[in-house]
Design brief:
The structure is a homodimer of 343-residue chains. Chain A has 15 helices and 5 strands. The first copy, chain A, has 343 residues and is α/β, with parallel strands linked by helices. In chain A, strand 4, helix 12 and strand 5 form a beta-alpha-beta unit.
Chain lengths: 343, 343
């Protein structure tokens, strides 16, 4: 985020965009469901793979769906509240991990290689963390909107799936503050060990979330205003990417707690805004499952992962490729000369 | 299974083999665990992927583990009890689906392509089904042992993972009979809808299992004798493949209910015999979860699949590749210059 995109966008532009989200392509989705029942397998025997193929068709707006060009986008940001000791790692690790992504040494690099996916890492002013939200809003409106616009750039013509993730020391505390403000409940309900803090660390996280709510919650406003006050740059960028993907007919895969908490801002604005989004996995961070329940999203798998950096989302790509490949490549009963179920 | 392997094997040969199973390579497994903790991620943050990397190292007997050459083996057999109307499909579908595998039109073909895996399909005398076990043993001892030896041929030098599956109209009823004889409980406890039979079909399946137990259960003998009386050729072949893989240091991925029921014969002979086996998924066939509880196996994922033909096992390959790739390809904290957790 080194230069301002032209023309500069505002949060009101984003509010307008939310009024114009395209709906599902029911024609493509129906075509997928009809084909599914002609393929050489008992009806429904591929279980969730069949749902995934129909979901891809519905939100790509094409049948059969295709998955030759998946992209993984990781947004990195720094947080003023990191100074309160809410992470097991120093804030410098955000930039160090971005360097590790560039050098190919992180988990997400290996996962993208296995999935044959394009990896893009977006740095959001790492030298300039958000303001400490325990004393006021985390972001100026202009900076929040600019980060959203920057996130929109992750969507380019031709990509067929967008997996989203993040890197940012302190950002599970930010996620907890957002969830608490958006959906209520105590701070402790939304706080967890993150990268691995101990009980003292969890108490510090709870105190920071409570202070953030006290400093910001009285202000009127919608979920985007909550984002501005309690969120962060990578959260804003993820939201922008989700919106841009919807406009461009690109289905989205969300990663763990932080990524889903960003998406939750859009859900609060309009529950239909996440219909083109799949949650890859259930994170080991306990609040993730709570948030998924609120969002009514069923994750694909649960491997006890809690790394972020789009690692869970990237791992979903081969599963989605499998769903698309079965859907497109399998023979029908007629084509294969296989006898059908006796009724 | 067109020619007898030389020299012909007996079930006693298999019993002897079971006495000689190699144990885990703890040196390779320990090396994996130690490396895991140096990689650029919070300790344990890759969750089950870390366990999988250590499991691969332990049973490949090498560190780091490798997964460039995975194989998927599907065994097809026919069953005398199919004549009792225990499936939603006619018995001819077994051979028709084998032709579909050869033509590349089945689900497993697409899944192997996505996983870049080698697919081998083994037919076991499809023109000569096993005997109807409601009136006596399903197999002669010689045929049972021959099918096991045939299954052993699925393991060749150089393969680094073996995914097992099956095709055989009627074989969920065979699986239920085996589980019932091996682990007790009512026939209804182990019978389910399979390819999609209705309540009448389930009643027929229960009756066939009960008749099979009545005709065979009184005979003395071990689990291999139970296999001979109530099993089938593809079950025997899967057992042979599991044993051969253990001898050759090839980790095994099991598919759904039928495949796991075959493996359960070995578990009954020696619970350690399945230590090199991972169960890919929990099938939608309700008895699969019951069987997994008995075998103390935690499946990797649950997508509500119930297709067989190694489809679930093949879908696990990209996940295992991801585990191996993260383990081998990630930088350590020192290599990447990333700060470690503050203690």
């Amino acid at each position: 985020m080194t230069s301002k995109p032209q023309p500069a966008v505002t949060l009101d532009d984003m509010r307008q965009l939310l009024q114009q989200l395209p709906g599902p392509d029911l024609e493509s989705g129906t075509a997928a469901v009809l084909r599914q029942d002609r393929l050489t397998k008992p009806r429904g025997a591929l279980g969730r793979l069949e749902e995934l193929a129909a979901w891809l068709a519905t939100w790509q707006g094409r049948h059969p769906p295709e998955l030759r060009r998946p992209r993984v986008a990781v947004f990195a940001g720094n947080h003023g509240i990191a100074a309160h000791g809410v992470s097991a790692y120093p804030a410098a690790v955000t930039a160090q991990m971005v360097a590790n992504f560039a050098a190919g040494g992180a988990a997400v690099n290996q996962l993208c290689q296995v999935a044959d996916a394009d990896l893009r890492v977006f740095e959001l002013d790492l030298e300039r963390p958000t303001a400490d939200f325990t004393v006021g809003p985390a972001m100026a409106e202009e900076d929040c909107a600019r980060a959203m616009a920057y996130g929109m750039m992750a969507v380019e013509s031709g990509i067929q799936l967008l997996c989203l993730g993040e890197m940012g020391i302190g950002n599970t505390t930010v996620a907890a503050a957002l969830c608490c403000a958006l959906f209520g409940g105590s701070a402790g309900h939304w706080v967890g060990p993150g990268t691995g803090v101990d009980q003292d660390g969890i108490r510090r996280k709870v105190a920071v979330v409570e202070a953030g709510l006290a400093a910001n919650a009285k202000a009127p406003g919608d979920a985007l205003e909550t984002l501005r006050r309690l969120g962060g740059y990578e959260f804003s960028a993820i939201i922008g990417a989700i919106l841009a993907a919807r406009m461009a007919k690109v289905p989205v895969v969300l990663d763990g707690y932080v990524c889903t908490a960003a998406a939750a801002v859009l859900f609060k604005m309009d529950p239909r805004a996440l219909d083109h989004c799949l949650v890859a996995h259930c994170s080991a961070e306990p609040a993730h499952q709570r948030l998924l329940t609120v969002l009514r999203k069923e994750p694909l798998f649960d491997f006890g992962m809690r790394l972020g950096e789009a690692s869970g989302a990237a791992l979903a790509i081969p599963i989605l490729k499998a769903a698309a490949a079965c859907h497109s490549g399998m023979a029908t009963f007629d084509q294969a000369g296989v006898s059908e179920k006796s009724e």
